[in-house]
Every structure is written in C-alpha cells, then in structure tokens.
C-alpha cells in the first residue's frame, strides 16, 4: 500500500473544473514531481492534499485513512509549503521556528530538540540569531522548509519550492529533498522548472487543464511521449556552395532512418532523431555518430555537430499542447 493514494480527485470552482479525475500514488521514500503550466491545477490539488480545501469528488488516503473524512487525523502526518510562504520580518530564525514548533504543540525539551535538529538539517544554525527579514531568498526558503519539517511529517507537499532560487540554492534544495526521501519521507513537489525536476524526482506526473496527461519515471515518460531520441545541431562551413549545402544536408538527413524533422535555423540545422522506445543513451550516441559519418562521407562540409538526449522538457512539450485553464 502506498503512503498516499489519490483517487478520482475533482475540484470545481463554479463552472470551472480546476482538477478533473486526478489519480496517483506516492510511496514513502520517493519524490514525485508534479509538472504543469500555469493554471493546470497543481496548487489546487496540493491544497486539497494539505487538507486546506475539500474536493468536489474523489478520495485521498494517507497511510490508509481518508484525509477527506478525517483531516484532523491526517494533519500531523503532513508538511505543506505553499507557493507563497511568509516569514515574519522582526523575528529571528530561531524565534520563527520556535513559534511554529509551539503551534505544532511541541513542548519543552522535545521542542528545543526538534528546532535544533531542523536547523542542523537545513544548515540554518549559523543564522539562528539573524532576523528573517535580513535573509536571502534561498535562506528564507530554507526557513520555510524547516518550518514544514518541525513535526517530522511523513508526507511533504512543496508547491514550487525552487521558484526564484539561484542555481546554487536549487542544487542545495535538491540535496535536502533527496536526504528527506532517504529518511523515508514521501515528497510531492511542483514546478515549472522541468529539467530541475528530472534530476530530483523518482517519478513525474504531468498535469494540464486539471487532468493528468502522463505519469511515470522520466525515462518511461520519454518513451511514451516521444520515443527515445536526441536533438542534433549541425552547422556547415558552406563556402561558395552557400545555402545549397544546407539543402543537400537536409535531403540526405531525411533519407536516414529515425529522422522525423529537420529545420533550418540561423545557427544551422536542427534535427530530431527518434529511436525505438526503450533505447539506451549509448544507442542514441551511436545513431548520432552514424549520421555524422553519413554527412562527412557524402562531402557535406560539417564544421560543428552536437547532440543532446531528449529530456523531460521535450516530453512535457510533446505531451502538453500549451493549453492553460
Ligand atoms: N479559489 C479559486 N476560485 C476560483 N478559481 C480558482 C481558485 N483557485 C484556483 N482557481 C482556478 O483553478 C485553476 C487551477 O489553478 P491552480 O492554482 O491550481 O493552478 P496551478 O497549476 O497551481 O498554476 P500556477 O502554476 O500558475 O500556480 C485556474 O484556472 C485558477 O484560476
């Protein structure tokens, strides 16, 4: 049995169906990325899972018990970080965490121990006497994450926690989330930053206009949505031949197996290579090498050739059509 089971969740706001028949499961010790464009229904779903809103229809089981019927019993198991979190300006980091630890009902030595352990885990100890207003965005976000951990919840629901963070703070957040999953927590994280989620998550769920379009691990999503493949960039030293060299290269490429699309751009040719679903990265590399050999042996003046494997962003763009509720 999964820690979290979401079954046929629906949320209507008047005539608008913000969440439409959403079902998924999340196991302890795993991270699920919830991906979707603006207005897709991510925050609405997360608010329901955090017991801050009730579904129009559907069921959510947390540790086997209905979160919809008994939200009070579920709350101690849940840590929720909304997309807009506040920190009070005139309190220190320690005061902020201690205040919320009291709100969670933690008392005496246990409270002190939980606040200290959360500050250790999030690396906030050196900043404990600093005013939260004086912290950087990355550090404020750590304080907010620390707040959600004080009562040691089993399920973490984090709504766009990486939004607005610089690359270093994102990497640090990623490491913290992985450590939390290793401790056995189930983590649900939403984001627009698709490539970030690919590195962070065990599985992903793509949502658009309230409906789940695809779920699975990143490799499965790729295989299902676009097939394994790569995008090649080919630049030519055209010399006297001019644009005819590009036309020649394009014709040659389109004759090769697995080439679905070739577009000419200012920087060269952008080529979509699609392999059998389930192909390995090594097979993608080999196919790219074969194409380069074909071009060179045909006398095409290739001066730059690069390829990148398709990633979650490509899967997302293929699966969603850019529709926003
Ligand atoms: N309280 C509300 N009343 C009416 N409509 C709402 C309410 N909350 C959300 N919506 C609508 O429900 C849809 C889903 O919104 P939601 O905030 O869940 O999307 P999201 O995927 O989190 O988007 P974003 O990435 O922009 O935060 C949107 O069309 C939104 O306008």
UniProtKB/TrEMBL annotation:
Question: InterPro entries recorded for this chain?
Answer: AAA+_ATPase, ABC_transporter-like_ATP-bd, ABC_transporter-like_CS, P-loop_NTPase
Every ABC transporter domain range: 4-234
Instruction: Note the SUPFAM superfamilies from the entry.
Output: P-loop containing nucleoside triphosphate hydrolases
Q: Which keywords accompany this UniProt record?
A: ATP-binding, Nucleotide-binding, Transport
**MF terms in GO:** ATP binding
Which stretches are annotated as coiled coil? none
- Name the Pfam families for this protein: ABC_tran
Q: Output the PROSITE patterns linked to this UniProt entry.
A: ABC_TRANSPORTER_1 (PS00211), ABC_TRANSPORTER_2 (PS50893)
**What Gene3D superfamilies does the record point to?**
P-loop containing nucleotide triphosphate hydrolases (3.40.50.300)
What family does the Swiss-Prot or TrEMBL record give for this protein?
Belongs to the ABC transporter superfamily.
* PANTHER family found in the cross-reference section: ABC TRANSPORTER, ABC TRANSPORTER, ATP-BINDING PROTEIN
State the protein's name: ABC transporter ATP-binding protein
Which organism does this sequence originate in?
Answer: Stigmatella ashevillensis
């Amino acid at each position: 049995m999964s820690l979290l089971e979401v079954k046929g969740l629906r949320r209507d706001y008047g005539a608008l169906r913000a969440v439409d028949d959403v079902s998924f499961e999340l196991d302890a010790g795993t991270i699920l990325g919830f991906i979707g464009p603006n207005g897709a229904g991510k925050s609405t779903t997360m608010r329901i899972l955090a017991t801050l809103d009730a579904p129009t229809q559907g069921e959510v089981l947390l540790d086997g018990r209905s979160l919809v019927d008994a939200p009070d019993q579920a709350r101690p198991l849940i840590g929720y970080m909304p997309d807009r979190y506040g920190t009070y300006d005139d309190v220190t980091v320690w005061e902020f965490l201690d205040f919320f630890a009291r709100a969670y009902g933690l008392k005496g030595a246990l409270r002190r121990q939980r606040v200290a352990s959360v500050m250790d885990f999030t690396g906030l100890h050196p900043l404990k006497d600093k005013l939260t207003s004086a912290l950087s965005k990355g550090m404020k976000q750590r304080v907010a994450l620390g707040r959600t951990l004080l009562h040691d919840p089993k399920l973490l629901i984090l709504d766009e926690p990486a939004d607005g963070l610089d690359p270093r703070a994102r990497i640090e957040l990623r490491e913290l989330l992985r450590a939390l999953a290793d401790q056995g927590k189930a983590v649900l994280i939403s984001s627009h930053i698709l490539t970030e989620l690919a590195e962070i998550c065990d599985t992903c769920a793509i949502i658009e206009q309230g409906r789940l379009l695809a779920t699975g691990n990143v490799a499965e999503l790729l295989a299902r949505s676009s097939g394994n493949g790569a995008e090649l960039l080919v630049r030519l030293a055209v010399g006297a031949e001019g644009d005819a060299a590009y036309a020649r290269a394009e014709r040659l490429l389109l004759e090769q197996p697995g080439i679905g699309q070739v577009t000419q751009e200012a920087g060269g040719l952008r080529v979509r290579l699609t392999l059998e679903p389930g192909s390995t990265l090594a097979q993608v590399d080999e196919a790219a090498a074969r194409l380069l050999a074909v071009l060179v042996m045909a006398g095409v003046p290739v001066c730059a050739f690069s390829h990148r494997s398709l990633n979650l962003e490509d899967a997302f763009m293929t699966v969603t059509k850019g529709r926003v509720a």
